[in-house]
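Dissemination and training. As part of the outreach component of the grant, students in the summer workshop were shown how a complex can be specified as a set of sequence lines and then modelled as a single object. The example used during the hands-on session is reproduced here so that future cohorts can follow it. Participants entered these lines:
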Amino acid sequence: MHEASVAQSILNIASKKLASTAHTDTVTAIHVIIGQFRNIDIDSLKFAFDNIRPMYAGCSNCKLEAEVVTARATCRGCSDTYNPDMATSFRCPRCGNGVGQLISGEELDVIGITLR
Amino acid sequence: MHDSSDEHMLERILAGNDDLAAHNREHFDELGLTAVNIMSAPGAGKTTLLEATVAALAPKHNIFVVEGDMVGNLDAERLRRVGAAVFQICTGRSCHLDAQMVARFLHSEPLQGVELLLIENVGNLVCPADFKLGEHRRVVLLSVTEGDDKPIKYPVIFRSCDAVVFTKCDLLPYVDFDINRAIENIRVLNPEVETFVVSSKDKTGLTEWNAWLSKKVQTKVVSS
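and obtained this result:
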């Protein structure tokens, strides 16, 4: 379950940010975006996050706010933009060709923290 | 009563691992070696393929193997028996190798003269895909007993690899595995991927696989 490693990295980033911010001592929420083309199960991530957050100073009660980013790809055949997913075996629904460039879906970023 | 404030930022969650992977790559390049990350589901035949690979390529190239397992050293012992130099990494509870584990290995083993570093990752088609190690090439093994739909179920690892080795192909007459369909499923995600159909048991296809690896070593030597 690599979600535990990902949860650790998220909390490390938030802890460092907290340490560099004056007049605050608590993180109440961490906001992350996770692309559909990443191997991350959000429930597993939240489970791991909730279990390890007490080990990080100032983060013991913080929430993880995760937003999933839909994958978008350019089709190699017709250059149309589409959502590559299992329903079509990742093929373009218009011409049946495969995934060219992934425009989105590989995000795995902390985009903000809420401090108090 | 304290006010809340939102701090906006944009930081890659795996930046720590990615930065260490880049550090590992610099070490590999300084040493002039080619590093290959070998990934698959448990039991696809990574160690058996590496036994055959080491036996075939050892006379030609200086090879070192990193064995990644959650526990134990059974695979490392197997590879030592065919004459390989092996470093065992036990990941404990972690289901994948990461760049820090490889960095610790790099700083503890003298690798001067090594031309080919084969890194056998922990058996898993999910987690290893997201954790770069600094490797030059990524190879995924898919055994014919697993099913030709696996690339659709595990798209991230099949999209990000340079080569796929179909293993245990001596069993093809006994299983419903369509090699052409499997290749098609991979190419939808990854059109440039190279594919090999092998049996480590009866030696089918090993010549092509070994030649591909050997070419990567020679290309590296020429370019370094």
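The helical segments of chain B are 15-31, 46-57, 74-81, 99-106, 150-153, 155-159, 179-189, 206-223. Students were then asked to discuss how this feature might be tested experimentally.
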